[in-house]
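re: ur question from earlier - yeah i can do the single chain one, its not a big deal. heres the input i used so u can compare w yours
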Amino acid sequence: MGKTPLTTIFLLSAAILLLVDRSSAQPLRVGIAGLNHDHVYGLLSSYKKGKILIAGIAEPDPRLVERYKKAYQLPDSLFYTSVAAMLEHIKPDAVLAYNATVDHLAVVEACAPRGISVMVEKPLAVDSKQANRMAELARRYHIQLLTNYETTWYPTNQQIYAETRTPQAIGEIRKMIVHDGHQGPKEIGCSPDFLKWLTDPAKNGAGALYDFGCYGANLMTWLMNGQAPISVTAIVHHIKPDVYPKVEDDATILLEYPDATGIIEASWNWPFSIKDLEVFGRTGYFHALNSSVLQERLNDRYEEVTVKPAVYTENFPYIADLLRGVIHPDNDLSSLENNLIVVRILEAARKSAIEGKKILL
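and the output i got, formated as tokens:
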């Protein structure tokens, strides 16, 4: 089958989707690197529903092993103490990393020479040095190196992207605003193992700036066709030092493009959870309030937009089709090229907040 650009296939109608025969396709067979990232709950729920197959799990902490073994009735035979040990015994389709951001590099170092593709949870890396090393390994050994974001699978975001590729929709993009945040990881009940590294700047890169700022950087790089911003300016606040003593818990990042501006608002201090996207064009405006509600404004009133179904609403079928050559990452949200720019933006934002000035990329 020939390769289809992901930006096209994401927004195929439900009727066309029914023509795609995946009945003979086997579920993705994965290895799991780490269990100290709470997003792994979603993966294990998909495993229980038969959406994926788990070939092995690499986790050095025996407490975590026992917890997940008991919670999901996982056999002892699945567990290994390291990714390298796991890959001595299994050959998965891909390895999915659910560990601290700083440990993503080690996963790629173990997988790439064996020709095994990797998807990490966002963001790709804690700094450009690690990100560039990961990219070099991925290119040398011809593997896919992908980054997973919840907002990648929002049909509303996919529809905004498709609409803005058509100049007559809202005209050229002039401003983008992304809000991502919630009450705080401790406040919403994240596990102690997750909190331990998420609130450690050496392991996470920063606090809310990295945890939630990456979403906006990812979406804006996508909307700007893979173009890096000219400059990055960031302001951070430490509103709850008693709860998060090592990291900031609120960040605002300003991205400067030649003809557009991006504003990223990332917080662990909001009264509720929000992940939205606003795009202002020369003649109109789109607002994705969440994954299912999309508004458009062309004159003086808002109109609700009918949201088209997306082909991919989670990462597992996307990875499977990618590895089979059905699709290929160009400037898509999971792609290595996009996420190398995301890391540069986050790194510049961290530097800007420390030095109190605009950082040129």
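The radius of gyration is 20 Å. not sure if urs matches, ping me
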